[in-house]
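[step 3/7] inverse_fold.run input=structure_tokens len=403
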């Protein structure tokens, strides 16, 4: 059966957006808007592990496309290129056939990761996050060193299916053993916060927020599946930590010494910039968008920080609105999709680390000092982010991709 090129392009575009980790409801809405502008009638459904596209002809003939797909991963650089191709189709600078070929080329290009930059990202994210948590120098240095161990398993996961399936658990376990053993030599190490910092790249705070965003947009199937996946990832990391601590206590006594913050406050500003910069390579942000990506992350963090006196819900709510506004401005400046800047801004607000610490109270981990209202804080942060996205109009897709 001959399938029109315009339908093939829509299918390839949807799959490309899915691979880049775009929310399902945004993919569906974007495809619908693009199809309408090109005179195509269709219905599109995107889920974490499968897609279903139906196209309608005037003579009641339909074309139905269903495929099982792997869950997408955030790749903001590829997303920018995909949207550029789609925009050229809208402006008639590219035909459907040529655009489809370019999407194929983009998919088939062997992505060469700069492993050294990735290694530095893991080291910087671990060390800088530990500094932000008001620990001490030794804890931050140890967390950065543990980040190297976590990166090794992250690299090996690309070579082994077994390690890939157990990545969060085995990396958390190895980091816990490493930090626990070093704490015997350096008792001033804050074990719990050093462990958390070393695996901060894996903490699914952004995934939890994205899942709730999907549910709020009434894309219940996709949102529920993504939320379940994020929680499983969180439990896998927590399992690795608990297993590591359990093994260590059989051989020696692990004591959680009170931490004295001996890091000057002005270092926090550098740590914030380092943390944001280290996350951008993980998100595969293009070089031309790096400066604005760092800037919006900095604005996001300090908006919430400076408004902390208003309460956690209000400060996160205003911070989220601020992120949406600046992401729209930066999108106009760089000609990149708004989501390229929205994600780096939101990631500085998400409650992943608090959720991880909150789990410790549920399972009675004595090595973690957990405030009694931790889960309330997590709920308030999530409500603040989702409420901010709603009030700022981020759930309207019209300007997210189509310029």
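[step 3/7] decode complete -> sequence:
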């Amino acid at each position: 059966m001959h399938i029109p090129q315009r339908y093939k392009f829509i299918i390839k575009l949807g799959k490309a957006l899915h691979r880049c980790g775009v929310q399902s409801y945004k993919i569906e809405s974007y495809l619908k808007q693009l199809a309408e502008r090109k005179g195509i009638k269709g219905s599109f459904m995107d889920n974490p592990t499968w897609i279903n596209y139906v196209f309608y002809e005037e003579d009641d003939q339909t074309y139905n496309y269903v495929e099982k797909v792997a869950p997408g991963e955030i790749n903001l650089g590829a997303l920018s290129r995909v949207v550029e191709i789609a925009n050229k189709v809208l402006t008639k600078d590219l035909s459907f056939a040529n655009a489809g070929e370019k999407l194929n080329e983009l998919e088939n290009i062997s992505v060469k990761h700069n492993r050294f930059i990735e290694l530095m990202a893991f080291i910087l994210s671990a060390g800088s996050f530990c500094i932000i948590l008001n620990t001490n120098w030794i804890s931050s240095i140890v967390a950065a060193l543990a980040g190297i161990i976590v990166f090794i398993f992250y690299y090996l996961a690309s070579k082994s299916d077994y390690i890939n399936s157990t990545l969060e658990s085995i990396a958390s376990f190895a980091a816990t053993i490493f930090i626990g053993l070093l704490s015997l030599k350096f008792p001033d190490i804050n074990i719990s916060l050093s462990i958390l910092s070393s695996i901060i790249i894996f903490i699914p705070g952004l995934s939890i927020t994205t899942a709730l965003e999907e549910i709020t947009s009434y894309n219940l199937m996709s949102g529920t599946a993504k939320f379940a996946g994020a929680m499983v990832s969180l439990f896998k990391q927590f399992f690795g930590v608990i297993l590591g601590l359990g093994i260590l206590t059989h051989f020696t006594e692990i004591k959680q010494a009170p931490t004295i913050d001996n890091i000057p406050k002005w270092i926090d500003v550098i740590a914030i910039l380092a943390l944001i910069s280290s996350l951008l390579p993980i998100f595969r942000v293009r070089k031309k968008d790096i400066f604005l990506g760092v800037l919006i992350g900095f604005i996001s963090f300090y908006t919430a920080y400076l408004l902390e006196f208003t309460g956690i819900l209000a400060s996160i709510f205003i911070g989220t609105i601020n992120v949406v506004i600046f992401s729209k401005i930066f999108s106009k400046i760089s000609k990149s999709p708004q989501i390229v800047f929205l994600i780096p801004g939101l990631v500085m607000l998400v409650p992943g680390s608090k959720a991880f610490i909150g789990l410790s109270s549920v399972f009675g981990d004595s090595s973690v000092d957990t405030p009694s209202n931790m889960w309330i804080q997590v709920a308030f942060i999530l409500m603040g982010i989702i409420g901010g996205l709603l009030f700022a109009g981020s759930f309207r897709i019209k300007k997210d991709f189509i310029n």
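[step 4/7] annotate
The radius of gyration is 22 Å.
Residues 358-370 have pLDDT under 50 and may be disordered.
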